[in-house]
Amino acid sequence: MEKTNLDFLKKRKVQIDKYLITLLKEKRITYKHHKDAEFLFNYLEGFTTSGKTIRGSLFLESLSLFGKTEKEIEALIPIAAAMEIIHSALLIQDDFMDQDETRRGIISLHKKIENEAEIKKSRKPQLLSISSIICATDICFFIAFGEIAKSNDKNLPKIISFLSEEYTNVGFAQWKDVELGLSVEKAKLSSIKDIYLYKTARYTFVLPLLCAALISGEDKNLISKMENVAESIGMVFQIRDDYLSLFGDPKETGKPLGGDIIEDKQTIYKYYLTKEIHKKENKKYLPVLSLFGKKDLSDQEIKKIQEVITKTDVQSTIEKLINDYQDTFYGNINQLNNEPLKKVMTDFFIFIKNRKK
User: Fold this and answer.
1) N or C: which terminal CB in the chain sees fewer CB atoms within 10 Å?
2) Residues 176, 166: Cα–Cα separation, whole Å
3) CATH fold label, 1-152
4) Is the pTM of this model over 0.85?
């Protein structure tokens, strides 16, 4: 494995987490007249700070790479915090849609509310749960954009417009993801890739990188090249996420093994597995497809799916796809004239390609 240096992730996470904790303590006081405020902000304090904080950290570090001083960067931490608050809200929604009970080793908000509602003998615990997380995530979005508005940067209107457009794309991609997961029709590869592009690649990497570039007044030519670089990183990130759902260690990922299978998500792995099993020589594996969507999936059944993926050409096909994105990445990164940026993006790509959580 190639050696990488992403120490900035720890440094920037500390800055963002510190700001988030202070912010959420302030919100507890501001909204103390609402009985659910303490419950929500207590949950968010643990949840927002328990993740990798990739988006906010990449945003802050990119500002540094574009020449901003640490003092200037400190003034823009509210935007980084906003990115992490919005991310947490989207994860809370995603966990309900996928019916995941844990995230980052923490009980999902919808499940926590439902459990407490059952203890209190609420008439409709599930309805209370979904209604509550809709309200909770709305609150997150409103607070986040309030944080973004704190910036006095001259490019603030452009930043808000850009963020609004990117987050809207995330919403449509999530909608499509749920729709495909519930459809009886086989998903097209192009549809799966579109979801990966807008729900992960642009959202996780293009958004923070280009937001920093806009603030720093970078020229359109450089921004276009960075966009292609960030998209390649993001696509590999999502494919690796799919791999970890099938082969990862739950203690490291913080998510149960086989979650995508249980939810019958339309992933690249499912697409190529279905295609491979329908080949004449692999018809004997057809029963494996009936395991997708099974709620009480056993460890042995997950192992069976793993074996079929390994014995057929699924993994080699996906590795070829990753290599194609890698070629695109290096083809674009070599056109950048910012050496520190090139180094960080290259380290990021290597880290993403080999990550275990």
Assistant:
1) N
2) 15
3) Farnesyl Diphosphate Synthase (1.10.600)
4) yes
